[in-house]
Give the backbone structure.
Amino acid sequence: MINAIRQWITDRLTGRAAVRPFATRHAPSPAATGRGSVGERDSHELPLDELLDPRALTRVGLLELISRTVVDGVMSGKHRSTHKGGSCEFSDHRPYAHGDDLRLIDWRVYGKRDRYYVKQFDDETNLQAWFVVDGSGSMAFGASTPSKFDYARMACACLGRLLLQQRDSIGLVMQADSQTHFLRPQVRSTHFGAVCEALRRATPAGNHIVSEQLDRLASSLKRRGLVIVLSDCFGDIDRFTAPLRQLRSRGNDVVVLQILAPEEVDFRFRSSAIFMDLENKGFRLPVTPGAMRRSYLERFGTFMKRLEDSLKRADVELVTITTDRDLGDALAYFLHRRAKNKRPIPRRAVH
Amino acid sequence: MQFLNAIFLAAVPLLSIPVILHLLRRRQREIIPWGAMPFLVESVRQHRSLRNLRDIPLLLVRTAALAALVFALAQPLVRSSWLGTTATREFVVILDNSMSMARTTSTGTLHGNTVSGNTVFQQQLERLEDFLDGLSEADSLRIMTAAQGPHWLTREPVAATADGKDRLLALCHDQKPSEGEGDFTACLELAMGLDAGPDLLQREIVVFTDGQAHGWHADEPTVWKRLEERKKNAPLATGIQIVRCGPTTTELTNRAVTRFEAPRTLVAIDQETVITTEVTNTGTAPTTASSLQCYLAEQLTQTMDIPALQPKQSHTVEWKHTFKEPGVYRCNCKLTAADDLLLDDQSTVIMEAVKQIPVLYVHDRLTQSTPDEAAWLFLASLGYDKEGGNGRWQSVFRPQIISRSELANQTFSDYHVIVLANATQLDNELLEKLREFVHSGGGLWVILGARQNTQSFNTAWGDEGVGLSPLSLDRLVQCPEGQENHARFRIHAPDAEHTATEHLADTQRLDLDQARLRRYYQFMPSPDKNISVLLATGNGKPLVCEHRIGEGRVIVQAIPFELDWSNFPSLKSFVVSVHDWLSYLADPAKTHYNLASGDTIELPVPADSPGTTVRISTPDQESVSLSHREDDFHASYRYRQTDLPGNYSVQFLNGTTSVRRVPFHIARESRESFLQPLDPSQSTLLQNQLGIAMDSELSISTSDISHMPRQKPLWWGLLGILLALLAVELALASRRSLAYGMAQVPSLPTMLGSASGATAE
């Protein structure tokens, strides 16, 4: 009775209703996803049909993932190539040189300048996209929603399929538990099957950090391409940002899809509980959430602010998604936003 | 510490519930696998000490709330002073309105008579006024009077405010000295047994009196032992003070009418009645000669001289009067000379004059015209002059003589007494009728005769029959030659305390010792020791025994009034016994106008007074309405509040007009006239045994009340604490919830998800 009165007073004062922990909110029900309801998801081997969420695929099927930077490709595709080619999209003029195709001479400019200029057109090539999936233990958390790792690998699969449909090549870098997956980008559909299989069988565990995978990727990357990092980004921000900055400096388009569980964002726990660290097995922390919430949220907010600033300085796009969000909606939003904010190619001044 | 409901202390283990729940919740906390541990670790590190500080007060408050609830139910008793209760006192004032308080000390008036001074009662009221002036408004008072036992003037306590004091003084000034004697021990016993009020800490009993010894029963140690116990077990600390009023000198001039009585108050008209008056000098100084005025129905009838009397000397005079008309008369006498105590200078007796009291005499002869010797002797004892005819009766009893065969035709209720002389062989129907007659208040005198069959008597009259005879007959005893003076054949002097034999017991004036028995029936010995025997032989064998059935009486006499059985009928004692026993048997049926204190006034409802209202006026001038009550045989008006001696009067009113007035009188105790102050040894006894302060100067003591502290239950205080603790608990818990709810979720610019509040597209 007293608790009920107290709850009522609190709700009136705060103007909101406290959320019971682990309450499902706009998210696939645990029953629908075939998982348990609290904490770490114990079944990490995901069936293929769930990995490729049909609803999400339907939602993003008509969209396309376009690199916001020029990429090095060997095949024609949707992305602007570092090579000038014969596409229909005008790029620049250059003085005629011996050996140039006379068909490319812009006769209008000749009429104005009395010099031969050759029209240059942007070449369009295919994209080499790398998915870096965080397989650390913290990604296994999912209380009222699918785990962050499940959400990340489903997003990875959907985006990978989308890119393959665009005839882009996809690669995968992932360390889950003690296994490291480094699949170089390929366009073949069989390769997509390998990627999916790796995602499907992966189990998030351990306290390794995604930065190590990014370092490895940065050192091995020879072509400019698209790097999509799917992680909760928990850990040392500077350590996390450094390889991203390096990748970005080499001309790669780098996107960080930060996957968070809603409980991590609002920390709406009430009852005293023991929080078990997913990355360091055996470490348990008795917590009275009511007393900790303000402090936690302050620290979490500070972290997110620092992360955002750091990535902004590194010219890395950050998209934060909570796992209670419908995957299809989230990817559609991401793709739309990316299509709108397509970065223009700097034009050379024509004199 | 004491508790009012200690059984609720069994719930004390419930106090561990919050602790147990706290520990259980700690043990049964849910385990949550968590990813964002770095933020949590830092927060917990910062708040670990604070968390304990927040939990423990809440735990303590909850435990204290439970403790407050348990103790509030158990109601611990604590000293009232701890609760800040005002130390209120209650005073129980006992006013002495006994007759001795009418004693005069200087010039003044009393009861309309000019007397030579103020009364002690008036002095007492002045002391009372002084006493009331010394009280504070926090005190309360009850007042009772002491004459003939405690009588409340204010049964409920009255606050000693100005209005309260005025009201109490007005009540006290309405009181007058009565003819009763004080009974202070009963008053103290009642006052000490009063319930303790909720805020009372002390009770002080203040007795205003002239200090006469007989009101204190100082010679009865059991009474004082009982009072001592009562004081020891009094519900709260009780002090007793005696404030003595009146003159300190023992000089007293007082004549008192110490006896004013007639041998019988039910008399026949036209017969001379003698009322004996005894005047005694109860003072310490000789008195001068005075006169005694006798009044009949407020009319001065006779004046008699009283000579000068020395202290303790008495003088007896006789007032002879012949009533001419039937009726109830108030006869009173009054001494004309004034003295220090006027109330005992007069006395009253109520006389009832009747034409006759009907008596039915049944003999064993076949016809009325031939009564036997016993009947003639019986008639002669009542003054019937055989030679002079039926017109010269010397008694109020007027017998009708019939034979046994005529008994069945008589209406028994027409007679007050039925005498069966040798007429015991009656059928069962008549025996039942006789039993009903006795049960309704009639008197039956059974005189065994010469032809009595003991076996048939026992069967018909004994316990196996109607039970009218208290004893069974054994055998006929005959006196052998030469043994006439043996104790077995003489009559033992009867009990002087018994109403029926008080005159017969006077062997100085009567000749019962000369009685010799020649024959008599001997009763069987009875295991019942309470059989009342009026006359017995010299060796203790019952001769005449009595039995009470219902409201009436039965006398069974084992010897007939015949000279060949004994010489008793030839003695003077025979005449006295006939009159006394007839009076004794007729007594239940008559109205008693002269009563003792505490007796019930009972007046049969007259047949000729329907529709009238009946009121009784008392000596203290109160008028009380009476309603009649009916039992199996009678309808009568009754009044029981007759503690106060004096004149009572029952009035039959037709509207406001008095159509009939019946006087009653409650006799006073003559002891009150003999003034005898408490002597020093008696005062010491009172002080030592009861701790009574015998001060002539009144002091309102604020005696140490801490030696017997008044305790009060603390339940309401604990309930208040409980409510306060619940409020604190609510505040603490709400504060925690508030802090929980007020925490801001960080807003993230590119958040996709409902947790951030961002909306996609």
About this structure: The longest helix of chain B spans residues 37-74. Chain B has a mean pLDDT of 82. Chain B touches chain A through 52 residues (CB under 8 Å). Residues 97 and 175 of chain B are 8 Å apart (CA to CA).
